[in-house]
Amino acid sequence: MASENVETLRAAHESWNRRDFAGMVRNSAESLVYTDNARSLSLNGPDKFREWTEAWAKAFSDGRITKPEYIDAGDIVIARFIAEGTNDGPFGSLPPTGERCRFRFAKSATSTNKGGLSRAVATTINTHC
Question: Do residues 66 and 60 make contact, with C-beta atoms less than 8 angstroms apart?
């Protein structure tokens, strides 16, 4: 049986697939720090993280998190997954390409003692567009 921390991260991924952005941050601590290593971004707080996830959805309107794998390490959960979709909207300063893209991610997420996500670090392993 998966731990509460694994289920918290899994629920956030499932919320993104449904475009339930409030659900994405529901179990985030107010002190959340989210680091996107590939883009050299550090986001402080659930509101900034929500904006970041909404920007991904605008860039890949049919985007989905697929093939998730979760490793329970107590207060830390390691996740590997694929994010894929068609780049049909702007991605930061880049215009849409219309291409189907696949991003392989590795993410570590740390939970507080109250069960909320307090820190997450995402690294893109490879990209195919």
Answer: no
Distance (Å, whole) CA 96 – CA 77:
33
Place of tokens 């449904």: 18
pTM to 2 decimals?
Answer: 0.87
Q: The domain 4-128: what is its CATH number?
A: 3.10.450.50
Q: Is 87 exposed, middle or buried (0-12, 13-18, 19+ CB in 10 A)?
A: buried
Structure tokens at 62: 């049919």
Q: What is the pLDDT of residues 72-118, one digit of tens each?
A: 998 899 999 999 999 999 988 999 999 999 999 999 988 865 657 78
Percent of the chain with pLDDT over 70: 95
